[in-house]
Amino acid sequence: MSPKRSRTAPDEFARAGRAAKFLLGKTRLRPRVAVVLGSGLGDFAEGLEGATRVPYAKIPGFPRSSVVGHAGRLVIGRSGKVPVAVMQGRVHLYEGHGIREAVFPVRVLARLGVRAIVFTNAAGGIDPAYGQGALVALRDHINLQGTNPLIGANDERFGPRFPDMTEAYSKAFRATAIEEAKRLGFTLHEGVYAAMHGPSYETPAEIRALRTLGAELVGMSTVPEVIAARHMGLGVLAISCVTNMAAGILDRPIDHEEVLQVGERVKGNFVALLQAVLPRIEAATAGESSAGKAEASHH
Ligand code: HPA
């Protein structure tokens, strides 16, 4: 082991490669696009055809997700004609995993050959213009988790030491998603997502502060994964489901059960949007290397 990589011990790149190889041995599909499903949004994975479903616990090196509402498995199947790798549930920082562990699945997706990822999450709405159940494409984020998945020795095989984040969320993917939502008859909003550590929800004072900072949504996930994805040059689309208005926006407490129920309510639109967007994202990745070498290309 080279001392340069000692902080990623034993060797994250090799570990991610082993997990990817394990998964590729279970299916003939070679997805170039992946979807990460957030709380209450797991339904999309049920509708895939020719699906191979692998519990995270079986994948070498994968952290375990323990959150209610997350199935905790990786599904490789077809959405229509598009081969897709779907993470049904993710790990969050608040579960106590190290942040590098939390983004390990994203490393594995890249080593599988994926070139673009659609992240989804449940979020609190700070902008009162969003109603409960609104779907919002992330335009940008504010990382308030106080940490970063790239802390520690950098492995150049994944990407550069100082990755650019000026367009972390692909403008082109976002425009595609907004267009497809319109065609399906609903509005896909755009917003800036503030990532908090959790697991406690925010206080009303924190939400006022976040609003002043320019955040329109708040959540406890996605940002570390997006940073890791951009580190590897993957294209990113992220869609939040506003499962509740953020603390203090309405005069009532926030309940995790309600968060899951709102996911249930919007899943029709949500699944339809994913189905419409995936072929176009897949087409946009055509011609790109699918070696999972994670060259630091831009989108
Ligand atoms: N805050 C943080 N994370 C969340 C929320 C919230 O209000 N709703 C769903 N995830």
Task: Please explain how this structure is put together.
- By secondary structure, this protein is α/β, with parallel strands linked by helices.
- It has a single domain (27-294), classed as Rossmann fold (3-Layer(aba) Sandwich).
- It contains 7 helices and 9 strands.
- It has helices spanning 12-24, 99-102, 104-112, 171-184, 204-213, 223-231, 256-285; strands at 33-37, 49-55, 73-79, 82-88, 116-125, 135-143, 188-195, 217-219, 235-245.
- The chain has a 5-stranded mixed β-barrel.
- The protein is globular, with a radius of gyration of 18 Å.
- The model is unreliable at 1-6 and 290-299 (pLDDT under 50).
- The site of hypoxanthine has 14 residues, from strand 5, strand 8 and strand 9.
Major sheet strand order: 5-8-7-6-9
Q: Please report the number of helical segments.
A: 7
Which regions are unreliable across 5 or more consecutive residues at pLDDT < 50?
Answer: 1-6, 290-299
Rg of Cα set: 18 Å
**H/E element sequence:** HEEEEHHEEHEHEHEH
Tell me about the largest β-sheet: 5 strands, mixed, barrel
* Share of helix, binned: 25-40%
Indicate the proportion of strand residues.
15-25%
Question: Which structural category do the helix and sheet elements fall into?
Answer: alpha/beta
What top-tier CATH class fits best?
Answer: Alpha Beta
Query: How much is the average pLDDT?
Result: 90
Termini separation comes to 33 Å
Number of strands: 9
What ligands are attached or bound here? hypoxanthine
CATH fold type:
Rossmann fold
What form results from the Cα inertia axes?
globular
CATH level-four homologous superfamily name: Nucleoside phosphorylase domain
Oligomer: single chain
